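Known limitations

Structure tokens in this collection are predictions and should be treated as such. Users comparing against experimental data should check residue numbering before alignment. To illustrate the layout, the record for Peroxidase-related enzyme is reproduced below. The input appears on top and the generated tokens appear beneath it.
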Amino acid sequence: MSRLPLIQPDTATGKAADLLAGVQKALGVTPNMTKAMVNSPAVLEAYLGFSGALAGGALSAPTRERIALVVAEENGCDYCLSAHSYIGANIAKLDADEIEANRHGRSSDPKAEAVLTFATAVVRARGGVEESDLKAARAAGLTDGEIVETIAGVALNVFTNYLNKAVDTDIDWPVVRHHQH
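Generated tokens:
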């Protein structure tokens, strides 16, 4: 049971109602995470803005889902793991083997694996990566822009992981549980 109220679109007012209506229109659903975030409309607006801006960047949607999967696994966030397993399979068209590999920082796509290797280093070091991590990312073909976007993707997903874990957001996706580390 969520520790904060999940604001329902039909009872929301003002900016909260407008933001939730936008989520529903864009996604066709209003995930519980957004209903929790909109306890502060500024938080939902910030999340949508950050996520939307990254969607216009160099990293593809499947690669952004892969980052979300490895970060959720690393942080033990079952809400995000459930959401991104579903989105990864149904929107980004990643197969089950790829999703499982992505959760562990691996990919059948060499460029995606380079992103995930770097993303894993970023999340494990809480940003304090080594020079060798940057060199390896560049050697694997990542541009400086892709490196910065990977860091941003990790940060965005750390935010959603922490929010959903702190709030204990009710999972409204087919449930996927993280592996115990």
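For this record: The chain has nine helices and no strands. Residues 61-167 form a domain with the AhpD-like fold (CATH 1.20.1290.10). Please report discrepancies through the issue tracker.
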